[in-house]
Amino acid sequence: MASFLLVGCVVGLALGLTGGGGSILAIPLLLYWVHLPFGEAKMISLAAVGLTSLVGAILQPRLGVVRWRAGAILGLGGVLAAPVGILWGHALDPQWNLGLFSALMVIVALRMWRGGMDLPLGRWACPRNEQGLPIPTLSCAGKIMAAGSLAGVLAGMFGVGGGFLVVPALQIVTGMGMERVASTSLVAISVISGAAFLFGLGAGGAVDPASLGIFCAGGGAGITLGIWGKKLCSPLILSRLFASLSFLAASYIFFQVFLAGKQ
């Protein structure tokens, strides 16, 4: 049980420091450290990351940092699309599911290594008011929901919250600063992960309540520490540290699945 607590703390810390992407570490840690089967690891990851992200959104240090409307729209897109990801995940052979997951981790690592900054807005950007905040037009809501839908598919397939996608999507579409983006992403991650977890239960998934509770306790402690700690660290250094960890984890998964023959 100590392993669940420690893994939850690591995942929560990564979520708090990066605002998105930290949840992708949950699956390899649960698979190869705690030694859970992929299906159970995915369910625990979804439930714990959803709860941990909600705690993180509530614990943001300053009022007005979280844009709840944008987070809710992203989350709605994920709720609508999560069942598609669940179906695709069940249809895939477990070996190829993990292989695709390792490829996804490499993509995330490359994006995080670049720091996720200075993204072009272009035609995807929402109109903004004098304070630099997005104006809630129908077109703007549709763009945000589309990003949430893709995150929902990935959540259903792989048990990740989709923060690595939600964070740059919010930057591109809303043009908000990184502090608002990182905080708002936690709202969307909590909704998307929670929905995917419930759909997974409906599709026959199972989870041990005691293990989940311990994992969530560690996650809550980790994300609280991460939210305060990110003010002391350079965002670029944090992104590159996370990118390095993600690439190492992806390489290990690929080796275990395709070379060592383990799932």
**Which value, in Å, is the CA radius of gyration?**
17 Å
Number of helices: 10
Strand percentage = under 5%
Total number of strands: 0
Compute the average pLDDT.
Answer: 78
Estimate percent helicity.
over 70%
Coarse structural class: mainly alpha
Report the order of strands and helices.
HHHHHHHHHH
Overall morphology: globular
Task: Give a quick account of the main beta sheet: strands, pairing sense, barrel closure.
Answer: none
The number of domains is 1
Distance between the termini: 22 Å
Could you name the ranges where pLDDT drops below 50 across 5 or more consecutive residues? Answer: none
Task: Explain the overall architecture.
With 263 residues, the protein is mostly helical. Helix content is 73%, strand content 0%. It is built from ten helices and no strands. The longest helix has 25 residues, at 178-202. The protein is globular, with a radius of gyration of 17 Å. It starts with a helix and ends with a helix.
What's the helix and strand layout?
Elements: H1 2-18, H2 26-32, H3 38-58, H4 68-91, H5 94-113, H6 138-158, H7 163-174, H8 178-202, H9 209-229, H10 235-259
Helix pairs in contact: 1-3, 1-9, 2-3, 3-8, 3-9, 4-6, 4-8, 5-10, 6-7, 6-8, 7-8
